[in-house]
């Protein structure tokens, strides 16, 4: 059955209600994930890190264990897992202890991620540099069937990339009591508003903390997308946007 044959609000709601992300592989480009945390249910399948030096540039290397250097990526992984507990997670550490990353590291991570067989990328990060290279990578991901979900800049007047690209699902934050609630605004550079205010998530030490920012709204949408992808494995970014528009709270 094709997506066009089942594009009805009732069917979409049914898929969202029953989906768990089973069979969906998600890449998380962030600060790493404390993959041994019990609340992640053992769903982190692989861990990587982008390293950079003056001789070989930026490159991705595997890690034997997932480590989160600033608590950011672990929170995002948990938010995705809460929505899609059966999805398989893959972590690529791009952000360091300074809460930032170089453009070279980000580009290396994106190039690596595009070549993997991951269905979704959660990108709770962004830049205003290297627009053309990021856009080319986003196009390549699109043609390979990989969906990018990216957080806009926390500053209201800035969007950033890849969130501002047409083929990417850009996410802004708002306060919602229900983490499954979101709004969709056609015509905006970042069409989706999801819960990113006072989001409770674990720290890498096993404690709990409340997080606020577009970074934590982004994985809400990634988790919702994973539940839909379970039912529609060939979903494209634009079909996902159509489904989100149909399911939005602000109908």
Any overview of this molecule?
It is a single chain. The chain is an alpha/beta fold and 251 residues long. The protein has one domain: Rossmann fold (3-Layer(aba) Sandwich), CATH 3.40.50. Helices cover 32% and strands 24% of the residues. The protein is built from seven helices and eleven strands. The chain has helices at residues 3-6, 9-18, 72-83, 103-115, 131-143, 214-231, 237-247, and strands at 25-30, 44-53, 57-63, 88-93, 120-123, 147-151, 169-174, 182-184, 192-195, 199-202, 208-211. The strands form two sheets. The chain has a nine-stranded mixed β-sheet with strand order 3-2-4-1-5-6-7-9-8, with helices on both faces. Strands 10-11 form a two-stranded antiparallel sheet. The protein is globular and about 55 Å long.
Work out the count of structural domains.
Answer: 1
Beta content comes to 15-25%
Query: Any idea what the CATH architecture is?
Result: 3-Layer(aba) Sandwich
- Number of strand elements: 11
The CATH homologous superfamily is called Peptidase S8/S53 domain
CATH topology category name: Rossmann fold
Provide mean pLDDT, rounded. 92
What is the succession of H and E elements?
HHEEEHEHEHEEEEEEHH
**What is the 3D shape?**
globular
| Strand-pairing-aware structural class | alpha/beta
Q: What gyration radius follows from the Cα positions, in whole Å?
A: 17 Å
Any idea of the CATH class?
A: Alpha Beta
> What is the spatial order of strands in the main beta sheet?
3-2-4-1-5-6-7-9-8
Helical residues, percent: 25-40%
């Amino acid at each position: 059955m094709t997506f066009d044959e089942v594009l009805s609000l009732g069917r979409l709601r049914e898929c969202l209600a029953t989906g768990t992300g089973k069979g969906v592989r998600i890449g998380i480009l962030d600060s790493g994930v404390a993959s041994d945390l019990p609340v992640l249910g053992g769903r982190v399948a692989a861990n990587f890190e982008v390293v950079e030096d003056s001789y070989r540039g930026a490159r991705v290397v595997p890690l034997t264990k997932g480590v989160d250097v600033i608590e950011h990526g672990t929170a995002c992984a948990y938010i995705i897992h809460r929505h899609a507990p059966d999805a398989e997670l893959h972590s690529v550490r791009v952000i360091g202890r300074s809460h930032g990353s170089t453009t070279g590291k980000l580009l290396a991570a994106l190039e690596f991620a595009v070549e993997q067989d991951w269905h979704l990328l959660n990108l709770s990060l962004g830049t205003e540099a290297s627009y053309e290279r990021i856009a080319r990578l986003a196009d390549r991901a699109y043609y390979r069937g990989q969906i990018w979900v990216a957080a806009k800049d926390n500053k209201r007047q800035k969007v950033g990339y890849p969130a501002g690209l047409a083929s990417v699902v850009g996410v802004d934050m708002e306060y919602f009591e229900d983490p499954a609630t979101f709004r969709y605004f056609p015509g905006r550079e970042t069409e989706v508003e999801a819960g990113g205010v006072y989001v409770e998530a674990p720290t890498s030490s096993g404690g709990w903390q409340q997080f606020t920012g577009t970074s934590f709204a982004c994985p809400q949408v990634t988790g919702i997308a994973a539940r839909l992808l379970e039912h529609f494995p060939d979903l494209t970014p634009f079909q996902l946007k159509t489904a989100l528009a149909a399911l939005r709270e602000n109908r």
